[in-house]
Amino acid sequence: MELAKLLPMPELLALLLLLLLSLHFITRKIRNRNQNQNLPPGSYGWPIVGETFKFISAAREGSVVRFIQERMERYDSRVYKTSFLGDPMAVFCGPAGNKFLFSNENKNVQVWWPSSIKKLLRSSLVNKVGDEAKMTRRLLLAFLNHEMLRNFVPKMDSIAQIHINTHWQGKEEVVVHSTVQKYTFALACSLFLSIEGPLHDSKISSRFHQFLKGLVGFPINLPGTRFHQAMKAANEIRQEIRNIIKQRKLDLEQKRLVSPSQDILSHLLVTPDSNGRFLTEIEIMDNILLLLFAGHDTSRSTLSSLMRYLAQFPHVYDKVLAEQVEISRAKGEGESLQWEDVQKMKYSWNVASEVLRLSPPVTGAYREALKDFTYADYTIPKGWKLHWTICSSHMDEKIFANPEAFDAWRFEGTGPTAYSYVPFGGGPRMCLGQEFARLEILVFMHHIVKRFKWDLVDPNEKFKYDPMLEPVNGLPILLHPHH
Ligand code: HEM
């Protein structure tokens, strides 16, 4: 039952005040405990809320790079302290910070996510550490590795073409961000759950927006909060996945038009981990919810940024088009794209990589200190939250000359040095969906450039993080089909 219905307003306010006061004293205790240590320089910001709202509003105003760079300049470009979502936090910067965090998993640090994410994604991989995490990653990677995914390229190709015929063909204007979501979501639903066809009436699709908007923030489960809406949406999506699991179990038992490798759901139902244990139904539900989220919104963000850069830089568009036309020429009329074709899209992938350098879908990710340790001569106390930041290396002119400029040639040859290019993270918790994302981005690029050229309706439209990078007005474009 909802708290607001249970308690009259004064009691509710008193309860909130009590909660805030307790949080305040806990925060002060934690801060005082570390007072005599040589902590990184920085500011904890306001009591309780720390710099949370400053960070979130910088992210939503599209100025997160400036927010981080200002603090690196003011305090220390290697590591500085802040406070986020009620916890003291050290922000690790640059390739050295990335290297330290990525190579210390399960030693000095382990993966950590804000409690809103933990609560929404329950027993999924993001809440697992140590051996359990290794097992779950191995299970998921057995489906998401390139050997498996190469068989799905013709399917991705067909989904991309149906998507473009349905949502782009015959239109003069398209709002990119909401439109490309239909493609990335359709792909995820098809490869993870074998849900095919139009998705606009599916409950999973209609509830996803609310789920996403409550992922990062204070996990206050009161009516009207983003988190409350997200919890409700997550439960409804899970219920839908549960129905699909029930049916699939029956179909697999009776060998009815299903195969153990048709999608990630069947794969998880029939594959045990290396100890012979199968994931429980709840674990399967939670991991599929995680994959649906991690696996479509990141690629959606990348495709929106890609469409912007291709419109802004016609010389880049022309080279991508030339490469894609060349690949088509070598194929028979109407023949599907294969994995080997995608391997030839070298310049196009350099372009996508440069998009991910300049406009990564996420700002970085989090770890937690497992013990007191020293980094850059500072003490990092046990229990502190740690944040590694993508922009602190992607926008460093010592690593990427002229970092503001779009230059796909940076990725030619050996490419950037280790730990400096990190849109997918690194180390034992690196993104599991890198190959999936590469294939879906390149397949989409192939078809969209071959069919259209486009102009931005507002060439100055800004992008913001909420929680993923997205265009503030959805990126409307004017389409010009090739004849
Ligand atoms: C352009 C697209 C994508 C980007 C930029 C991206 C980025 C990231 C980043 C930065 C992390 C955190 C890594 C860390 O903490 O070190 C991550 C984790 C993760 N990603 Fe992705 N991702 C993308 C696409 C995908 C796709 C398509 C899937 C699934 C098919 C996926 C599944 C995951 C999972 C399951 C994790 C958690 C891994 C763990 O905790 O061990 N991602 N991703």
From TrEMBL:
Instruction: Tell me where it resides.
Output: Membrane
- Main localisation: membrane
- Can you tell which superkingdom this protein's organism belongs to? Eukaryota
InterPro entries on file: Cyt_P450, Cyt_P450_CS, Cyt_P450_E_grp-I, Cyt_P450_sf
Topology relative to the membrane: Single-pass membrane protein
What's a Pfam family this protein contains? p450
Q: Which UniProt keywords apply?
A: Heme, Iron, Membrane, Metal-binding, Monooxygenase, Oxidoreductase, Transmembrane, Transmembrane helix
**PROSITE patterns xref list:** CYTOCHROME_P450 (PS00086)
Q: Which CDD domains match?
A: CYP90-like (cd11043)
Family membership: Belongs to the cytochrome P450 family.
According to UniProt, the name of this protein is Cytochrome P450
The organism's taxonomy opens as: Eukaryota, Viridiplantae, Streptophyta, Embryophyta, Tracheophyta
